[in-house]
Amino acid sequence: MCDELAPAPFSADEAAAVQAFTAGLGLDGLIDVHTHFMPKRVLDKVWAYFDSAGPMIGREWPITYRADEDTRVAALRAFGVRAFSSMVYPHKPDMAPWLNAWAADFAARHPDCLQTATFYPEPGAAEYVTAAIESGARVFKSHIQVGDYSPLDPLLDGVWGVLAEAQTPVVIHCGSGPAPGRFTGPEPIRAVLQRFPELSLIVAHMGTPEYAEFVELAERYEQVRLDTTMSFTDFSERGAPYPPSLLPRLAGLQEKILFGSDFPNIPYGYLHALEACERLCFGDDWLRSVVHHNAARLFGLA
Questions:
Q1: Which SUPFAM superfamilies does the annotation name (predicted)?
Q2: Which of 49, 81, 203, 229 is most exposed, with minimal Cβ within 10 Å?
Q3: What is the chain's alpha carbon radius of gyration, rounded to the nearest angstrom?
Q4: Superfamily the domain 12-299 falls into
């Protein structure tokens, strides 16, 4: 059941192994741009959906780091994560402002969290997005699949304009994995970028499974980046393997790839997400850029 929390979702040995990974790169920590912290009743519903292997998931998906909020924060810090996010996302109108207020309070209590906000296509969205930025939001989350909305909805025109002008990044789940939605895929995003070419987008999950199309967008648009969330892991490779033919282009995007984990909702250990990036064999300099330097530069972290 979702309210049954693991007494110890991480161990000292696991934390030491993650720290050893980054130390081996000459780093004193890493930055994870794709982690989830939400109001408890929302997260409980998310976990219940994962437990049910619902249609947007389609297979068994155990949550490795099921624990109370303080324990989850402690896990990231024990792993040596210098900065992380609190990815929140609405699935109906009038939900985003409430989530934004919760996320602002969470970031105030946890200064190592990049204050996160979100939005939904509804009247007033541009105004509350502006207010969130003015109150300190540093990254936004858009989940096209769960929200079941089109990024081309006219109610989002003002939102994209505000975000492009502020150059505030948006982590956007817009690929059609793990299951397609009505508005997922690269073409709606391509159309948004044609209208707002300065929009700072971080395409979640490398755009799974439309990898080639999202690599092309990252190559074409200066402010489009990709995050590694769940990509290259054994779990994801079984369902949507990354095409070997794209690897040379991925290596060339060294400055535009950011590490993300999807913590705590991952069906494997945190270290595996890092090792999955390492086994691409692009070298330590590429890894340093991905797990730390690119996000540090984007978010102005010393």
A1: Metallo-dependent hydrolases
A2: 49
A3: 18
A4: Metal-dependent hydrolases (3.20.20.140)
Distance between CA 229 and CA 259 in Å, rounded?
Answer: 7
Neighbours of 60 (CB within 10 A): 9
How far apart, in whole angstroms, are the C-alpha atoms of residue 68 and residue 74? 10
In the numeric block, which tokens belong to residue 212?
């080639």
Mean pLDDT of 157-180: 97
| Residue pair 255/294 in contact by the 8 Å Cβ criterion | yes
Residue type at position 292: H
Question: Is the whole-model pTM more than 0.70?
Answer: yes
Distance CA 108, CA 302 (A): 19
Angle between helices 157-166 and 125-134 (to 10 degrees): 20
Phi, psi for residue 142 in degrees, rounded to 5: -125, 125
Q: Rounded to whole angstroms, how far apart are CA atoms 264 and 9?
A: 10
As a whole number of Å, the end-to-end CA separation of the chain is 41
With a CB cutoff of 8 Å and minimum separation 6, the contacts of 76 are 32, 35, 84, 263
Return the H-helix or E-strand segment holding 177: none
Residue 259: which H helix or E strand, with range?
A: none
Is the Cβ–Cβ distance between 225 and 289 less than 8 Å?
Answer: no
Structure tokens at 40: 């408890």
Dihedral pair phi/psi, residue 103, rounded to 5°? -65, -35
Q: Which residues contact 74 (CB under 8 A, 6 or more apart)?
A: none
Amino acid at 48: A
Domain ranges within the chain, ordered by starting residue:
12-299
For residue range 223-250, list pLDDT tens digits in order.
Answer: 999 999 999 999 999 999 999 999 999 9
